[in-house]
């Protein structure tokens, strides 16, 4: 009999394998969790059973998912997107549920006319089941769609804003659906009483929490943050999230509602971004466990024995949602191409669909024999989503002739503004850095043309007389229309390495003589961007340290001319001596494991390299580290020449990644 530890290790091993495979195939990890759940589940290899303990942990995955969603629901964001969220999003969710209910009633009436009774197709599905199914089918996958749009730099595009608006309302609609579905199993009078009581409880509780809760939450987080303890802040975060979940559950509502409210309260404080970082490991791990349990429920045999039904359940809702969302987006003023892209991105099933389907099954609204083909259909639709999004542009161009015309008009608009401009600076991204650069260029009477994907920013800046147009700098058509071949330089002002590499590739292929300046956060991508053809790379962290050092040197009396020369020498050397940092206790985040670090290694009498040259002791190509400097035992700092003889007490300063530094240290100090 498997112990709790056996099951835990099995789930962890399966999760690791699933995520690694998805990373290799550049797919969302959620698909990996679902796949390994199917493989280890009772209907496949039967390595694990869907135990109550695992289900309980998986529930916390949903709790933390709702908490993260709550963090995104700050009031200013909702207000700015109200027409997309509460107009387009509400219409999509509401009409999907209504259409599912109407379809059920029409089909049931037809079957009854033919003499079939006992529910739809003999499954015992009634109108309450249809409402629950409609709610589940209305959901789309936030995790898959947002990740792929971020990778494709489409979050601020026309269709991207509509997709985000609908996804936000879908996430918000889960809260009342989690209350509604358990009540559907009661009689009509009991259901009405339950829903009215739940509405009163929710209104009272949410009124108290949202009206007075923001001030209390702000005061409490300030109090905890002043203690300057990461452990205390993390414990407090878990206490607040689970405490409010417990409170709403004891009010007869749901755990997820309390977590959602906790996220909304924290979203109004200055600690929002720190909380997002701290909660991410719990959210990802527990949500992954939830998707494994969902995959375990899938009966693999249903794909083989009921393949026609599964295929119908996968393609039917997908085509219906595609048509509905496209039509609604068109009615809300979107061009045909934008509306079709919005529909293609949201046609699949979603993670909250699994949550609602599991709840409906637990409440006996959905028969067990129906759950498996439905789960299989939902998983198939999600597996097909990356392919649909990847080929969405080709699909739209084939279906909508006006989309090609709209894109041509957009390129013509860019070209019209840039047609009389030459020897200009082409600015990719018009955020704060791009705007500051434009102001300096204007002072020097240097022409510029900026491309940006935020329509509001473009509209406001263009109205103010700035030379900025709506366009995607990672597309060749936009760069050519903006006068790439006539430009004096290209500047990538936003710190996104994949996007910068796309731009560098396009510039190198079509205007190789134009220099490119690239902005990055740190020095981790210097070699990668230099290899891609960047002329100048500006790492913010290093530039900040140079400015800090120059100000400090000037304040202690070093002549400004000498300070400027020292800083310039560092830049000319392409930040050679500044690559990396000495690791400390506050440098343990996962994102920093691949950054260059500095390590000081002091040689002892037992070191095998004593009396040898630096080149003979440490092959820098094999160890993948660089020797920044060497400090002699008497205190003198010397250049790390290859023929430098090493002595006892010498300290070598090495630069490289953590694993490479560890290998080099062992090589230097071994006896």
Task: Please give a structural write-up.
The chain is α/β, with parallel strands linked by helices. It has 3 domains: 52-272 and 317-398, Na+/H+ antiporter like fold (Up-down Bundle); 405-496, Rossmann fold (3-Layer(aba) Sandwich); 590-669, 2-Layer Sandwich (Alpha-Beta Plaits). It is built from 29 helices and 10 strands. The chain has helices spanning 4-24, 29-40, 52-72, 75-80, 82-113, 127-138, 142-151, 158-184, 188-225, 230-250, 255-267, 272-297, 300-305, 307-331, 336-346, 351-362, 368-390, 392-399, 401-418, 432-443, 455-463, 476-481, 497-510, 526-532, 540-555, 560-572, 614-617, 620-623, 658-669; strands at 425-428, 448-452, 468-470, 489-492, 516-520, 536-539, 597-602, 626-631, 637-638, 651-656. It has a 6-stranded parallel sheet with strand order 3-2-1-4-5-6, sandwiched between helices. Helix 5 (82-113) packs antiparallel against helix 6 (127-138), helix 14 packs across helix 17 (368-390) and helix 16 packs antiparallel against helix 17. The longest helix is centred in the N-terminal third of the chain and has 38 residues, at 188-225. The radius of gyration is 30 Å and the shape is globular. The two termini are 49 Å apart. The model has no long low-confidence stretch (mean pLDDT 79).
């Amino acid at each position: 009999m498997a112990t709790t530890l056996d099951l835990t290790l099995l789930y962890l091993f399966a999760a690791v394998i699933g995520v690694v495979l998805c990373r290799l195939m550049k797919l969302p990890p959620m698909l990996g969790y679902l796949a390994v759940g199917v493989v280890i589940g009772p209907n496949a290899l039967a390595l694990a059973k869907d135990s109550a303990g695992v289900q309980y942990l998986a529930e916390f995955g949903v709790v933390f998912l709702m908490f993260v969603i709550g963090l995104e629901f700050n009031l200013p964001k909702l207000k700015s997107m109200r027409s997309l969220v509460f107009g387009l999003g509400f219409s999509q969710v509401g009409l999907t549920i209504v259409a599912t209910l109407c379809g059920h009633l029409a089909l049931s009436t037809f079957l009854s006319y033919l003499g079939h009774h006992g529910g739809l197709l003999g499954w015992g599905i009634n109108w309450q089941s249809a409402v629950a199914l409609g709610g589940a089918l209305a959901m789309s996958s936030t995790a898959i769609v947002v990740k792929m749009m971020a990778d494709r730099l489409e979050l601020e595009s026309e269709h991207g804003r509509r997709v985000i608006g609908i996804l936000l309302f879908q996430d918000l609609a889960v809260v009342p659906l989690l209350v509604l579905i358990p009540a559907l199993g009661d009689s009509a009078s009991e259901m009405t009483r339950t829903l009215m009581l739940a509405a009163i409880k929710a209104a009272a509780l949410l009124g108290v929490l949202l009206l007075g809760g923001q001030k209390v939450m702000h005061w409490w987080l300030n109090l905890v943050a002043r203690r300057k303890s990461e452990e205390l802040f993390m414990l407090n975060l878990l206490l607040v999230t689970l405490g409010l979940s417990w409170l709403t559950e004891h009010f007869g509502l749901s755990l997820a509602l309390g977590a959602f409210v906790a996220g909304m309260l924290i979203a109004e404080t200055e600690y929002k971004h720190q909380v997002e970082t701290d909660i991410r490991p719990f959210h990802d791990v527990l949500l992954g466990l939830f998707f494994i349990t969902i995959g375990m429920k899938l009966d693999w045999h249903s794909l083989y024995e009921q393949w026609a039904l599964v295929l119908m359940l996968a393609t039917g809702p997908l085509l219906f949602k595609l048509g509905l969302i496209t039509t609604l987006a068109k009615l809300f003023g979107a061009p045909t191409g934008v509306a079709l892209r919005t529909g293609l991105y949201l046609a699949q099933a979603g993670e909250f669909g699994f949550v609602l389907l599991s709840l409906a099954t637990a409440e006996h609204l959905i028969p067990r024999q129906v759950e498996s083909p439905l789960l299989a259909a939902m998983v198939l639709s999600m597996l097909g989503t990356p392919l649909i999004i990847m080929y969405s542009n080709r699909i739209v161009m084939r279906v909508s002739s006006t989309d090609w015309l709209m894109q041509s008009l957009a390129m013509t608009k860019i070209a019209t503004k840039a047609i009389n401009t030459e020897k200009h600076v082409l600015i990719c991204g018009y955020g704060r850095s791009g705007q500051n650069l434009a102001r300096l260029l204007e002072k020097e009477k240097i022409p510029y043309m900026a491309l940006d994907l935020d329509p509001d920013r473009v509209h406001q800046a263009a109205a103010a007389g700035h030379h900025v147009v709506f366009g995607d700098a990672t597309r060749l058509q936009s760069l050519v229309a903006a006068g790439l071949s006539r430009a004096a330089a290209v500047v990538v002002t936003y710190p996104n390495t994949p996007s910068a590499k796309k731009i560098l590739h396009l510039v190198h292929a079509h205007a190789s003589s134009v220099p490119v300046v690239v902005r990055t956060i740190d020095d981790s991508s210097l070699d990668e961007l230099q290899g891609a053809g960047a002329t100048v790379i500006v790492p913010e962290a290093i530039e900040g340290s140079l400015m800090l050092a120059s100000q400090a040197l000037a304040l202690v009396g070093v002549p400004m001319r000498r300070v400027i020369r020292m800083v310039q020498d560092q830049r000319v050397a392409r930040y050679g001596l500044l690559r990396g940092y000495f690791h400390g206790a506050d440098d343990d985040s996962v994102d920093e494991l691949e950054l260059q670090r500095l390590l000081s290694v002091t040689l002892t009498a037992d070191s095998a390299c004593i009396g040898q040259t630096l080149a003979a002791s440490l092959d820098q190509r094999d160890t993948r580290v660089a020797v920044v400097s060497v400090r002699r035992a008497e205190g003198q700092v010397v250049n790390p020449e290859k023929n430098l003889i090493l002595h006892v007490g010498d300290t070598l300063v090495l630069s490289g990644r953590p694993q490479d530094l560890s290998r080099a240290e062992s090589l230097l100090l071994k006896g």
